[in-house]
Amino acid sequence: MRISKEHDVRRNEILDKAAGLFEERGYNNTTVNDILREVNIAKGTFYYYFKSKEEVLDAIIDRYLEIALEMAEAVKNRAELSPAEKLLQVIIGLRMGSPKSEVIQELHKPENALMHQKSIAGIVMGLTPIMKDIVQEGIEAGDFATPFPEQTIQIMLAAAFTLTDESMFSFSQEGQQRLIQALFYSLETLLGAKKGRFTSGLQELTERM
After folding, report:
1. Residue 140, pLDDT above cutoff 80
2. Domain span at residue 11?
3. Same domain, yes or no, for 104 and 199?
4. CA dihedral sign, ordered 59, 65, 71, 77
């Protein structure tokens, strides 16, 4: 157990220091040697934990994804919220709580396209079972009526994470707001929810954009 704990501590130390360097200097301007000096470790130690600098970035992204999934799980378990409110809280939390650091911005660069796709796939597949449970709760409560709860969530998440990606599409602020409105309208339609069910959340989201 002690060996495992020390392994995790050292690995997290490398990730923490690397994340700081990526934010300060940029991913492309940070070398493995920079990370070695910052953590004060030998090159062999670094390669014991990670095969490359790219793998370090991948692991940092995984940590951000884990935070998003923990947030969604916590929202799902809030008994005082209705199913619609839970979905809104998850969506708003993802939009407002997503890291804006240099590390995340690196994903939007052309040379990191594959890693970017992986991060989107990871969060869509990770969030789907959590949000599917929320939709199922809404179906049982009579708030939603859809025969495709899982697919509805996948469509919504995939659309949200691609169409709102500024590295792929460039919209004016008004265009972004109309896009968000369309996404919420589509969600209501796909879920078979009462019209206007997500209006309050839509207003909160657009006001923060």
Report:
1. yes
2. 1-50
3. yes
4. negative
